[in-house]
Amino acid sequence: MSLAASNFLIPNGTFFVVLIIFLIVLAVITKFVVPPIKKVLDERESIVAQTTENNRAATKKFDDARSQYEAEMKDARGEATGIRDEARAKGREHLEGMRKRATDESDKALSAATNDLRSEGEKAAEVAKGDVGDLASTLAARVLGTEGAKGRATSGTAG
């Protein structure tokens, strides 16, 4: 015994008792503690997998929505460009119509003014023709030195 008691490598009864207690505690932990922990870990892993799948689906939906949005925006831009071009064309047509109307009104006003000036010029020419005869006789009398002209000349200079 002294050899067994002094040598720690030779097992004694205490070792076997501690080993049995360890195995019992290990069995209890394996039976009652590990399954709930394993269940929680499995649920957590399942939730993580589901979240990952949901993220993939959401990313796919987002990408689809973005591509649809961009396609619709492209169509809307094209439509807006068409509407803008159509509005510009209508504006040009309206502007051309206004210019044509203004030109027509201006031509009418110019024609009316020309006709008025022409008629007034003709009237002035007729009046001038009537006055030319009187002026010619007055001038002839002055040049010839007749008395009617002197009377007028003296009265015109005296006044």
From TrEMBL:
<keyword id="KW-0812">Transmembrane</keyword>
<dbReference type="GO" id="GO:0045259">
    <property type="term" value="C:proton-transporting ATP synthase complex"/>
</dbReference>
<keyword id="KW-0066">ATP synthesis</keyword>
<keyword id="KW-0813">Transport</keyword>
<dbReference type="GO" id="GO:0005886">
    <property type="term" value="C:plasma membrane"/>
</dbReference>
<dbReference type="Pfam" id="PF00430">
    <property type="entry name" value="ATP-synt_B"/>
</dbReference>
<keyword id="KW-0406">Ion transport</keyword>
<keyword id="KW-0375">Hydrogen ion transport</keyword>
<comment type="function">
    <text>Component of the F(0) channel, it forms part of the peripheral stalk, linking F(1) to F(0).</text>
</comment>
<dbReference type="InterPro" id="IPR050059">
    <property type="entry name" value="ATP_synthase_B_chain"/>
</dbReference>
<feature type="region of interest" description="Disordered">
    <location>
        <begin position="73"/>
        <end position="125"/>
    </location>
</feature>
<dbReference type="GO" id="GO:0046961">
    <property type="term" value="F:proton-transporting ATPase activity, rotational mechanism"/>
</dbReference>
<comment type="function">
    <text>F(1)F(0) ATP synthase produces ATP from ADP in the presence of a proton or sodium gradient. F-type ATPases consist of two structural domains, F(1) containing the extramembraneous catalytic core and F(0) containing the membrane proton channel, linked together by a central stalk and a peripheral stalk. During catalysis, ATP synthesis in the catalytic domain of F(1) is coupled via a rotary mechanism of the central stalk subunits to proton translocation.</text>
</comment>
<keyword id="KW-0138">CF(0)</keyword>
<protein>
    <recommendedName>
        <fullName>ATP synthase subunit b</fullName>
    </recommendedName>
</protein>
<dbReference type="InterPro" id="IPR002146">
    <property type="entry name" value="ATP_synth_b/b'su_bac/chlpt"/>
</dbReference>
<keyword id="KW-1133">Transmembrane helix</keyword>
<dbReference type="InterPro" id="IPR028987">
    <property type="entry name" value="ATP_synth_B-like_membr_sf"/>
</dbReference>
<keyword id="KW-1003">Cell membrane</keyword>
<comment type="similarity">
    <text>Belongs to the ATPase B chain family.</text>
</comment>
<dbReference type="InterPro" id="IPR005864">
    <property type="entry name" value="ATP_synth_F0_bsu_bac"/>
</dbReference>
<keyword id="KW-0472">Membrane</keyword>
<feature type="compositionally biased region" description="Basic and acidic residues">
    <location>
        <begin position="73"/>
        <end position="108"/>
    </location>
</feature>
<dbReference type="GO" id="GO:0046933">
    <property type="term" value="F:proton-transporting ATP synthase activity, rotational mechanism"/>
</dbReference>
<feature type="transmembrane region" description="Helical">
    <location>
        <begin position="15"/>
        <end position="34"/>
    </location>
</feature>
<comment type="subunit">
    <text>F-type ATPases have 2 components, F(1) - the catalytic core - and F(0) - the membrane proton channel. F(1) has five subunits: alpha(3), beta(3), gamma(1), delta(1), epsilon(1). F(0) has three main subunits: a(1), b(2) and c(10-14). The alpha and beta chains form an alternating ring which encloses part of the gamma chain. F(1) is attached to F(0) by a central stalk formed by the gamma and epsilon chains, while a peripheral stalk is formed by the delta and b chains.</text>
</comment>
